[in-house]
Amino acid sequence: MTAAFNKNLLVRLDRKLGADFDLVAFDHCAVLNARHSRVEMHLVRRTPERVLIPGADLTVAFDAGESIWTERSNTHTPAGHRAATRPRLPQVCEEPASAHREMCGRCLPAS
């Protein structure tokens, strides 16, 4: 599902801006970036390609192995989430009976 979603970005560039991406020449790759606590989605080019994007008056050259970083999903510990969202969302709800932690703005601050 995610691979199709990411390749759809290229389909939209083809349709909206007249680009000429060769979709089968891109592989979907999910990368765990532990250092930054995130999963990154990339489309990686298998072979060199020169892509024309007339609607943006642009030509882009890709080398084999070069990627387009299409999305990321950050993960946080409760403390990291509080730090990243302060002051908008300073509380974390923790359900002791479950490993699931719900982030919300309506609960008491975590102790």
Secondary structure tally: strands: 7
Number of domains: 2
The sequence of SSEs as H and E is HEEEEEHEE
- Could you say which structural class the secondary elements and strand pairing correspond to? alpha+beta
Overall pLDDT metric: 76
Structural account:
With 111 residues, the chain is α+β, with helices and mostly antiparallel strands. It has two domains: 2-75, no CATH class; 76-111, no CATH class. It has two helices and seven strands. The chain has helices at 2-17, 78-85, and strands spanning 26-33, 38-45, 49-53, 58-62, 67-74, 92-94, 101-103. The chain has a three-stranded antiparallel β-sheet with strand order 1-2-5, with helices on one face. A two-stranded antiparallel sheet has the order 3-4. The chain has a two-stranded antiparallel ribbon with strand order 6-7. The radius of gyration is 20 Å and the shape is elongated. The two termini are 39 Å apart.
List the helices and strands and how they pair.
Elements lengths: L1 H16 L8 E8 L4 E8 L3 E5 L4 E5 L4 E8 L3 H8 L6 E3 L6 E3 L8
